[in-house]
Amino acid sequence: MTARLAPASGEGARLNGGRFNLPDSFPVLYLCTTRPWVVAEMRRLGERQAIGVESLLPRVVRSNWRECSISPPSGSRGTLASHDNC
Predict the structure, then answer these.
(1) Which residues pair with 59 in a beta bridge?
(2) Percentage of the chain with pLDDT > 90?
(3) Are 83 and 71 in contact (CB under 8 A)?
(4) Phi then psi for 69, rounded to 5 degrees?
(5) The model's pTM
(6) Which domain holds residue 57?
(7) How many structural domains comprise the chain?
(8) What count of other Cβ atoms lies within 10 Å of the Cβ of residue 45?
(9) What is the rounded CA–CA span in Å between residue 53 and residue 18?
(10) Which among 28, 68, 79, 80 has the fewest CB atoms less than 10 Å away?
(11) Are 54 and 86 in a shared domain?
(12) 8 and 46 in one domain?
């Protein structure tokens, strides 16, 4: 089992590479400026990895340095909802 990396460390991008850095180069922290952008990025990640967005949820994200949850609304498929704490 692989040890989990701290989400805000940038180590995942350093180890595996990302949009703007090669693997084993330097840490990068990818950020979004709005909740809809976060949702779009989650959908893209689910599609790119061919696992679907539901497999990535629930997820905790930060909004203005507060923790927020993103999860599928009960009874719906393929949609995301951010909770009121964001």
Answers:
(1) 70
(2) 10
(3) yes
(4) -105, 145
(5) 0.52
(6) 33-86
(7) 2
(8) 13
(9) 19
(10) 79
(11) yes
(12) no
